[in-house]
Amino acid sequence: QNLKRVQDLQQGKVASISDLDQAVADAARTRADVKAAEATDAIARLNQAGYRIVLATNQSGLARGLFNIDDLNQIHNKMLKQLSEVGGTIEAIFFCPHAEKDNCQCRKPRPGLFQDIASRLGISLAKVPAVGDSLRDLQAAIVAGAQPVLVLTGKGRRTLSELEEGFKEVPVYEDLANFADSFLKDRGEQA
To answer: Which of 78, 76, 91 lies closest to 31, judged by CA?
Structure first.
């Protein structure tokens, strides 16, 4: 089924790669959290405007034995269910199951996940926004040639306070909803 999703994605363009572990995971846990609800609504609005969302995420908890692949699939399925309830979806989820000590190429800040996405979907990441809340997200996006975007949810505020000189040009948004509003407005689409 995942292969089918990747093949479906190859027929269109990816407009946003989101690594918003905290916001999207919160949405999977409960819709009562306002920020989580806004994140799912933002993804739905992007989908409804014709954009496809792909999640690229480090999941070192697998390597550290904190959870197993079935647990991760349950979290992802719950997240996808929450999104479907508001008319949204995540087209594909790419994850790194390794711990930092494994020194793999897919664990952000290395660009392996992004390169895998580009390769499997047959796309260039040159104009693809990569929305994230950590320095690792921004670094991986830049190295892979995507457009890094920082949101201040999750680890975002701490990341902003620690940004080095080379990252001062990265666009910053309060949350995924604000990013979606601006992204859609800039393209003349209804937000």
So the answer is: 78
